[in-house]
Protein backbone atom coordinates (compact mmCIF):
# COMPACT_ATOMS: atom_id res chain seq x y z
CA UNK A 1 0.00 0.00 0.00
CA UNK A 2 1.92 3.02 -1.26
CA UNK A 3 -0.04 5.91 0.20
CA UNK A 4 0.97 6.47 3.86
CA UNK A 5 -2.36 8.22 4.47
CA UNK A 6 -3.97 4.81 4.04
CA UNK A 7 -2.33 3.29 7.10
CA UNK A 8 -4.53 3.17 10.19
CA UNK A 9 -1.82 4.45 12.51
CA UNK A 10 -1.45 7.54 10.28
CA UNK A 11 -5.19 8.06 9.90
CA UNK A 12 -6.60 7.65 13.39
CA UNK A 13 -5.67 8.82 16.85
CA UNK A 14 -5.41 5.24 18.11
CA UNK A 15 -5.34 6.28 21.76
CA UNK A 16 -8.69 8.05 21.43
CA UNK A 17 -10.08 5.27 19.24
CA UNK A 18 -9.16 2.70 21.90
CA UNK A 19 -11.15 4.63 24.50
CA UNK A 20 -14.14 4.60 22.16
CA UNK A 21 -13.50 0.92 21.47
CA UNK A 22 -13.62 0.20 25.23
CA UNK A 23 -16.96 2.02 25.49
CA UNK A 24 -18.38 0.16 22.48
CA UNK A 25 -17.29 -3.16 23.97
CA UNK A 26 -18.95 -2.31 27.27
CA UNK A 27 -22.23 -1.28 25.62
CA UNK A 28 -22.40 -4.13 23.09
CA UNK A 29 -21.11 -6.82 25.51
CA UNK A 30 -18.64 -7.81 22.80
CA UNK A 31 -14.88 -8.04 22.90
CA UNK A 32 -13.36 -5.75 20.24
CA UNK A 33 -9.91 -5.33 18.72
CA UNK A 34 -8.72 -3.34 15.68
CA UNK A 35 -6.16 -4.73 13.21
CA UNK A 36 -4.36 -3.25 10.20
CA UNK A 37 -4.55 -4.57 6.63
CA UNK A 38 -1.89 -7.18 7.46
CA UNK A 39 -3.97 -8.50 10.34
CA UNK A 40 -1.60 -7.04 12.94
CA UNK A 41 -3.40 -5.54 15.99
CA UNK A 42 -3.14 -1.75 16.27
CA UNK A 43 -5.11 -1.67 19.54
CA UNK A 44 -5.33 -3.87 22.59
CA UNK A 45 -8.32 -6.12 23.12
CA UNK A 46 -11.26 -4.36 24.74
CA UNK A 47 -12.84 -6.69 27.30
CA UNK A 48 -11.53 -9.99 25.97
CA UNK A 49 -13.64 -12.70 27.63
CA UNK A 50 -11.92 -14.96 30.23
CA UNK A 51 -12.67 -18.04 28.14
CA UNK A 52 -11.02 -16.57 25.04
CA UNK A 53 -8.11 -15.27 27.10
CA UNK A 54 -7.51 -18.79 28.35
CA UNK A 55 -7.81 -20.29 24.85
CA UNK A 56 -5.45 -17.73 23.29
CA UNK A 57 -2.81 -18.45 25.94
CA UNK A 58 -2.67 -22.06 24.74
CA UNK A 59 -0.24 -22.44 21.82
CA UNK A 60 -2.27 -25.17 20.12
CA UNK A 61 -5.73 -23.65 20.50
CA UNK A 62 -4.57 -20.08 19.76
CA UNK A 63 -3.39 -21.16 16.31
CA UNK A 64 -6.99 -21.98 15.44
CA UNK A 65 -8.06 -18.56 16.76
CA UNK A 66 -5.55 -16.89 14.44
CA UNK A 67 -6.87 -18.89 11.50
CA UNK A 68 -10.41 -17.77 12.35
CA UNK A 69 -9.30 -14.12 12.48
CA UNK A 70 -7.52 -14.38 9.14
CA UNK A 71 -10.36 -16.19 7.36
CA UNK A 72 -12.99 -13.87 8.81
CA UNK A 73 -11.11 -10.77 7.70
CA UNK A 74 -10.67 -12.10 4.17
CA UNK A 75 -14.36 -12.94 3.86
CA UNK A 76 -15.34 -9.49 5.10
CA UNK A 77 -13.07 -7.87 2.50
CA UNK A 78 -14.44 -10.09 -0.26
CA UNK A 79 -18.03 -9.24 0.68
CA UNK A 80 -17.25 -5.57 1.47
CA UNK A 81 -19.50 -5.77 4.52
CA UNK A 82 -19.43 -7.21 8.05
CA UNK A 83 -19.02 -10.97 8.15
CA UNK A 84 -20.63 -12.89 11.03
CA UNK A 85 -19.31 -16.38 11.65
CA UNK A 86 -18.65 -19.10 14.22
CA UNK A 87 -15.14 -19.80 15.49
CA UNK A 88 -13.72 -23.27 16.17
CA UNK A 89 -15.55 -23.28 19.55
CA UNK A 90 -18.83 -22.20 17.89
CA UNK A 91 -18.53 -18.77 19.48
CA UNK A 92 -19.95 -15.90 17.40
CA UNK A 93 -17.44 -13.39 15.96
CA UNK A 94 -17.70 -10.47 13.52
CA UNK A 95 -15.13 -9.11 11.05
CA UNK A 96 -15.88 -5.49 10.08
CA UNK A 97 -13.72 -4.36 7.12
CA UNK A 98 -12.42 -0.81 6.77
CA UNK A 99 -12.18 -0.10 3.03
CA UNK A 100 -11.38 3.38 1.72
CA UNK A 101 -11.23 4.17 -2.03
CA UNK A 102 -11.29 0.42 -2.76
CA UNK A 103 -8.28 -0.14 -0.52
CA UNK A 104 -8.51 -2.48 2.46
CA UNK A 105 -6.78 -0.70 5.33
CA UNK A 106 -7.82 -2.80 8.30
CA UNK A 107 -10.67 -4.34 10.24
CA UNK A 108 -12.49 -4.25 13.54
CA UNK A 109 -12.86 -7.73 15.00
CA UNK A 110 -15.70 -8.13 17.51
CA UNK A 111 -17.61 -10.92 19.18
CA UNK A 112 -16.83 -13.60 21.76
CA UNK A 113 -20.54 -14.10 22.43
CA UNK A 114 -23.11 -16.88 22.02
CA UNK A 115 -26.54 -16.73 20.39
CA UNK A 116 -29.65 -17.25 22.48
CA UNK A 117 -31.59 -18.80 19.60
CA UNK A 118 -31.09 -21.36 16.85
CA UNK A 119 -30.00 -18.73 14.34
CA UNK A 120 -26.39 -19.87 14.67
CA UNK A 121 -27.24 -22.95 12.65
CA UNK A 122 -27.25 -20.76 9.53
CA UNK A 123 -23.78 -19.37 10.26
CA UNK A 124 -20.59 -20.88 8.93
CA UNK A 125 -18.03 -22.36 11.28
CA UNK A 126 -15.11 -20.78 9.51
CA UNK A 127 -12.43 -23.12 10.94
CA UNK A 128 -13.05 -26.61 12.27
CA UNK A 129 -10.87 -28.19 14.95
CA UNK A 130 -10.65 -31.95 15.29
CA UNK A 131 -11.61 -33.13 18.77
CA UNK A 132 -9.04 -34.99 20.83
CA UNK A 133 -8.54 -35.82 24.49
CA UNK A 134 -5.99 -33.07 25.08
CA UNK A 135 -8.13 -30.23 23.72
CA UNK A 136 -11.23 -31.70 25.39
CA UNK A 137 -9.39 -31.60 28.71
CA UNK A 138 -8.37 -27.98 28.14
CA UNK A 139 -11.97 -27.05 27.31
CA UNK A 140 -13.18 -28.79 30.47
CA UNK A 141 -10.88 -26.58 32.53
CA UNK A 142 -12.40 -23.48 30.88
CA UNK A 143 -15.99 -24.72 30.70
CA UNK A 144 -17.23 -22.45 33.49
CA UNK A 145 -15.91 -19.40 31.61
CA UNK A 146 -17.47 -20.74 28.40
CA UNK A 147 -20.89 -20.94 30.06
CA UNK A 148 -20.44 -17.35 31.27
CA UNK A 149 -20.05 -15.89 27.77
CA UNK A 150 -22.58 -13.11 26.97
CA UNK A 151 -25.65 -14.25 25.05
CA UNK A 152 -27.29 -12.10 22.35
CA UNK A 153 -29.87 -12.65 19.63
CA UNK A 154 -28.81 -12.80 15.99
CA UNK A 155 -30.74 -9.59 15.33
CA UNK A 156 -28.73 -7.81 18.04
CA UNK A 157 -25.46 -9.13 16.61
CA UNK A 158 -26.41 -8.04 13.10
CA UNK A 159 -27.39 -4.56 14.30
CA UNK A 160 -24.10 -4.15 16.18
CA UNK A 161 -22.15 -5.29 13.11
CA UNK A 162 -23.83 -2.67 10.92
CA UNK A 163 -23.29 0.02 13.55
CA UNK A 164 -19.56 -0.76 13.79
CA UNK A 165 -19.27 -0.80 10.01
CA UNK A 166 -20.82 2.65 9.53
CA UNK A 167 -19.08 4.14 12.57
CA UNK A 168 -15.64 2.98 11.46
CA UNK A 169 -16.09 4.31 7.96
CA UNK A 170 -17.33 7.66 9.20
CA UNK A 171 -14.44 8.12 11.62
CA UNK A 172 -11.76 6.96 9.17
CA UNK A 173 -13.05 9.02 6.24
CA UNK A 174 -13.29 12.14 8.40
CA UNK A 175 -9.74 11.56 9.63
CA UNK A 176 -8.46 11.12 6.07
CA UNK A 177 -10.12 14.36 4.96
CA UNK A 178 -8.69 16.22 7.94
CA UNK A 179 -5.16 14.86 7.57
CA UNK A 180 -5.06 15.37 3.81
CA UNK A 181 -6.32 18.91 4.12
CA UNK A 182 -3.71 19.78 6.75
CA UNK A 183 -0.89 18.35 4.65
CA UNK A 184 -2.04 20.08 1.49
CA UNK A 185 -2.52 23.34 3.35
CA UNK A 186 1.08 23.20 4.55
CA UNK A 187 2.29 22.65 1.01
CA UNK A 188 0.40 25.69 -0.23
CA UNK A 189 2.81 27.89 1.72
CA UNK A 190 5.16 27.39 -1.23
CA UNK A 191 2.47 28.14 -3.84
CA UNK A 192 2.91 31.35 -5.79
CA UNK A 193 0.74 34.03 -4.17
CA UNK A 194 -0.69 35.17 -7.50
CA UNK A 195 -2.31 31.75 -8.08
CA UNK A 196 -6.11 32.21 -8.05
CA UNK A 197 -6.51 29.62 -5.33
CA UNK A 198 -4.13 31.41 -2.96
CA UNK A 199 -6.72 34.13 -2.41
CA UNK A 200 -9.32 31.63 -1.26
CA UNK A 201 -6.85 30.19 1.24
CA UNK A 202 -6.90 33.55 3.04
CA UNK A 203 -10.65 33.42 3.46
CA UNK A 204 -12.00 32.85 6.96
CA UNK A 205 -15.26 31.28 5.84
CA UNK A 206 -13.93 27.88 4.70
CA UNK A 207 -16.50 25.29 5.71
CA UNK A 208 -16.63 21.52 5.71
CA UNK A 209 -18.69 21.58 2.51
CA UNK A 210 -15.73 22.78 0.41
CA UNK A 211 -12.98 20.73 2.07
CA UNK A 212 -13.03 18.06 -0.64
CA UNK A 213 -13.00 20.67 -3.41
CA UNK A 214 -10.13 22.41 -1.67
CA UNK A 215 -8.16 19.16 -1.45
CA UNK A 216 -8.62 18.47 -5.15
CA UNK A 217 -7.68 22.01 -6.13
CA UNK A 218 -4.63 22.00 -3.89
CA UNK A 219 -3.40 18.68 -5.27
CA UNK A 220 -3.77 19.87 -8.84
CA UNK A 221 -2.05 23.17 -8.04
CA UNK A 222 0.92 21.44 -6.47
CA UNK A 223 1.38 19.17 -9.46
CA UNK A 224 0.97 22.06 -11.90
CA UNK A 225 3.70 23.95 -10.07
CA UNK A 226 6.08 21.09 -10.80
CA UNK A 227 4.94 20.33 -14.35
CA UNK A 228 5.89 23.22 -16.60
CA UNK A 229 4.69 21.82 -19.89
CA UNK A 230 1.36 20.25 -20.97
CA UNK A 231 -0.65 22.78 -18.97
CA UNK A 232 -4.33 23.38 -19.64
CA UNK A 233 -3.71 26.75 -21.28
CA UNK A 234 -1.86 25.01 -24.13
CA UNK A 235 -4.71 22.65 -24.99
CA UNK A 236 -7.36 24.02 -27.32
CA UNK A 237 -9.75 21.63 -28.98
CA UNK A 238 -10.84 22.23 -32.57
CA UNK A 239 -14.21 20.85 -31.47
CA UNK A 240 -15.76 23.19 -28.84
CA UNK A 241 -17.79 20.30 -27.47
CA UNK A 242 -14.62 18.69 -26.16
CA UNK A 243 -13.06 21.73 -24.51
CA UNK A 244 -14.61 21.09 -21.07
CA UNK A 245 -13.14 17.58 -21.16
CA UNK A 246 -9.62 18.76 -21.98
CA UNK A 247 -9.85 21.50 -19.37
CA UNK A 248 -10.88 18.95 -16.76
CA UNK A 249 -8.13 16.48 -17.69
CA UNK A 250 -5.39 19.09 -17.42
CA UNK A 251 -6.80 20.72 -14.29
CA UNK A 252 -7.26 17.43 -12.44
CA UNK A 253 -4.03 15.56 -13.01
CA UNK A 254 -4.40 13.83 -9.65
CA UNK A 255 -7.68 12.11 -10.55
CA UNK A 256 -8.46 8.82 -12.23
CA UNK A 257 -10.93 10.28 -14.74
CA UNK A 258 -13.49 8.17 -16.59
CA UNK A 259 -14.85 8.63 -20.09
CA UNK A 260 -18.38 8.65 -18.70
CA UNK A 261 -17.59 11.57 -16.39
CA UNK A 262 -16.07 13.63 -19.20
CA UNK A 263 -18.98 12.87 -21.53
CA UNK A 264 -21.33 14.15 -18.83
CA UNK A 265 -19.27 17.32 -18.50
CA UNK A 266 -19.59 17.85 -22.24
CA UNK A 267 -23.35 17.08 -22.13
CA UNK A 268 -23.08 14.32 -24.72
CA UNK A 269 -23.42 10.55 -24.64
CA UNK A 270 -20.35 8.41 -23.84
CA UNK A 271 -20.46 6.74 -27.26
CA UNK A 272 -20.56 10.07 -29.13
CA UNK A 273 -17.84 11.48 -26.86
CA UNK A 274 -15.65 8.48 -27.66
CA UNK A 275 -16.07 8.97 -31.41
CA UNK A 276 -15.31 12.69 -31.53
CA UNK A 277 -12.46 12.31 -29.00
CA UNK A 278 -10.85 9.75 -31.28
CA UNK A 279 -11.28 12.09 -34.24
CA UNK A 280 -9.79 15.02 -32.31
CA UNK A 281 -6.76 13.25 -30.79
CA UNK A 282 -6.20 10.30 -33.11
CA UNK A 283 -6.27 8.04 -30.03
CA UNK A 284 -8.83 6.19 -27.97
CA UNK A 285 -9.55 7.81 -24.63
CA UNK A 286 -8.14 4.72 -22.89
CA UNK A 287 -4.79 5.35 -24.63
CA UNK A 288 -4.69 9.15 -24.55
CA UNK A 289 -5.12 9.60 -20.78
CA UNK A 290 -2.40 7.19 -19.62
CA UNK A 291 -0.04 8.43 -22.34
CA UNK A 292 -0.39 12.05 -21.26
CA UNK A 293 0.00 11.04 -17.63
CA UNK A 294 3.25 9.32 -18.53
CA UNK A 295 4.45 12.60 -20.05
CA UNK A 296 3.66 14.34 -16.78
CA UNK A 297 5.34 11.51 -14.89
CA UNK A 298 8.52 11.96 -16.92
CA UNK A 299 8.64 15.63 -16.01
CA UNK A 300 8.20 14.84 -12.32
CA UNK A 301 10.94 12.22 -12.56
CA UNK A 302 13.22 14.73 -14.26
CA UNK A 303 12.58 17.77 -12.09
CA UNK A 304 11.71 16.53 -8.58
CA UNK A 305 13.00 14.16 -5.91
CA UNK A 306 9.57 12.63 -5.40
CA UNK A 307 9.46 8.87 -4.90
CA UNK A 308 7.85 6.61 -7.49
CA UNK A 309 5.04 5.93 -5.04
CA UNK A 310 4.39 9.64 -4.54
CA UNK A 311 4.34 10.35 -8.28
CA UNK A 312 1.96 7.44 -8.74
CA UNK A 313 -0.38 8.87 -6.10
CA UNK A 314 -0.11 12.42 -7.47
CA UNK A 315 -1.19 11.27 -10.92
CA UNK A 316 -4.22 9.35 -9.68
CA UNK A 317 -2.90 5.79 -9.73
CA UNK A 318 -4.27 3.83 -6.78
CA UNK A 319 -1.44 1.31 -7.03
CA UNK A 320 2.25 2.02 -7.68
CA UNK A 321 2.69 -1.35 -9.36
CA UNK A 322 0.10 -0.46 -12.00
CA UNK A 323 1.76 2.94 -12.51
CA UNK A 324 5.14 1.27 -13.12
CA UNK A 325 3.56 -1.23 -15.51
CA UNK A 326 1.85 1.59 -17.46
CA UNK A 327 5.04 3.65 -17.61
CA UNK A 328 7.01 0.67 -18.92
CA UNK A 329 4.32 0.03 -21.55
CA UNK A 330 4.79 3.52 -23.02
CA UNK A 331 8.50 4.08 -22.38
CA UNK A 332 9.88 0.50 -22.50
CA UNK A 333 11.65 0.99 -19.17
CA UNK A 334 10.68 1.53 -15.55
CA UNK A 335 10.34 4.99 -13.95
CA UNK A 336 13.40 4.40 -11.78
CA UNK A 337 15.56 3.46 -14.77
CA UNK A 338 14.21 6.45 -16.73
CA UNK A 339 15.17 8.83 -13.92
CA UNK A 340 18.63 7.27 -13.63
CA UNK A 341 19.30 7.51 -17.38
CA UNK A 342 18.00 11.09 -17.54
CA UNK A 343 20.24 12.19 -14.67
CA UNK A 344 23.30 10.49 -16.13
CA UNK A 345 22.78 12.27 -19.42
CA UNK A 346 22.09 15.56 -17.66
CA UNK A 347 25.27 15.26 -15.60
CA UNK A 348 27.25 14.54 -18.78
CA UNK A 349 25.76 17.66 -20.39
CA UNK A 350 24.03 15.79 -23.19
TrEMBL record:
Gene3D superfamilies the record matches: Homeodomain-like
> Which Pfam family would be a valid example here?
PocR
Alphabetized UniProt keyword annotations: DNA-binding, Transcription, Transcription regulation
Recorded GO MF terms:
DNA-binding transcription factor activity; sequence-specific DNA binding
Q: Does the UniProt entry include the keyword Cell cycle? A: no
Extract the signal peptide range: none
Q: Name the SUPFAM superfamilies on file.
A: Homeodomain-like
HTH araC/xylS-type domain: from which residue to which, for each copy? 243-341
Cross-referenced PANTHER family, in alphabetical order? ARAC-FAMILY TRANSCRIPTIONAL REGULATOR, HTH-TYPE TRANSCRIPTIONAL ACTIVATOR RHAS
List the protein's name.
Transcriptional regulator
User: Mind giving the lineage of the organism this protein is from?
Assistant: Bacteria, Bacillati, Bacillota, Bacilli, Bacillales
